[in-house]
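--- STAGE predict ---
source: upstream dedup step, 1 unique chain passed
mode: sequence only
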Amino acid sequence: MRLINIKQPKELLVANVLNLPRKSLLIIDNAQALDKDVVSYILENASDKLRVLIISTDDNVSVRHNKIRVASKRAVSIIAEAFKNRQKEILPIIQKLDKDIGEGFLEMPLEYRITNAAESDTPWQFNFILTGGWHRAGTELTILNEMERFDLLLTAISVKQIVSLDTGSSLEWLEKVSKILGKDRSWLTRAIQALKDRHLIIEGDTIRCPHVRFCEVVIDIVYNNQKEKYHEQLIDIFRIALNEGMPSLKGIIGLSSHGDHLKIHSIYLNP
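--- STAGE serialize ---
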């Protein structure tokens, strides 16, 4: 059984599980999001009849014993190897999410995509790349558009990522972007959190999207929207990204290959 959420007292939950006629395994995923007292109570009632598996990204979640730590890169390599060995089983599942994967003419072999995804730093980034997460950009942008226009921040992150050759955006740069968009620091904080919750950005020394292909699709969708009321501000973000510091020529070429070509070229040549 997998515990999704708790809608009853923890005592009643455990009692119901213990009353089942057979031995049970209770899986608590994302345990860091649950009340620690609840997790501790469930663990205290683990027995031969009730086994409990806790999965957490937070070391602060209390576990009495048998704690196993798996580094993200190690987890990625384990998953990638397992998927390579089970390609016939995995292929039809992946094809439901990305029709570009297959064994036909002009299709990308699954093994190649797995190898590409195996360069990821985390398991969720691996799965994002494996399933062609960029194909779902349109849906995500629609949702973010309705969430205080958080799609604007994702667009700025995408622009900077391509110009910087996948290096990403600093928080200082995103604060500058927010001002251009007429947004305050509170909006920026909420937007970053929303993008993190939806697994659309990776946060480390810099902030970036999980894959550059996703950046390309985001830029194409937003900048080609002729009804976009923030169009001029987005063009200003393009200008700043292209003229700030010493951007890579490869990054400039990559960025200018998306959106309104003539206007973007004009911006760069006439800053």
